Amino acid sequence: MAGGIRERDDEEDTEVYEINVTPFIDVILVLLIVFMVAAPLSTVDIAVQLPAATAKPQPRPEKPIYVTIKSNLEIAVGEDTVAKPLFLTAITRVTEGNRDTRLFLRADKTVPYGELIGVLDQLRAAGYLKVGLVALEAVRPPEFGAPAPASPAPTSSQ
After folding, report:
1. Quick one: fold of 65-133?
2. Sheet harboring 75-77: ordered strands across?
């Protein structure tokens, strides 16, 4: 109990009030267990089955027009390297003045970002708004915490 009578010869009978910590520790341990059980439940991803897209991919043009920025910052339209001030003239010649032609802009990975944006800005200012950026598709490593890729079902050899 929390209070009791202490019997000593030199003191009068007095009650001593002390906190009994055993029930307190029991309650704390029960709360700890409850939180340890409940914490993983709050981080579980919600399982959702997403619908499949029905949109058809854009058809690839028969003869795509590539604008390439090389690592030495030279610009090529198609296979022909052109001077930087004249690349818009070369694009107008190749597209026959059709501003709705889709262009594909690709750049070496060492090209500064500002240079790429500068070329893209010049294309937009000239009226070429359908510009796609070209990159290689790389296999990405799985992200931390992402589910592991499904492995094929084991087959039995009998």
Report:
1. Nucleotidyltransferase; domain 5 (3.30.420)
2. 80-82, 75-77, 65-69, 103-107, 131-133
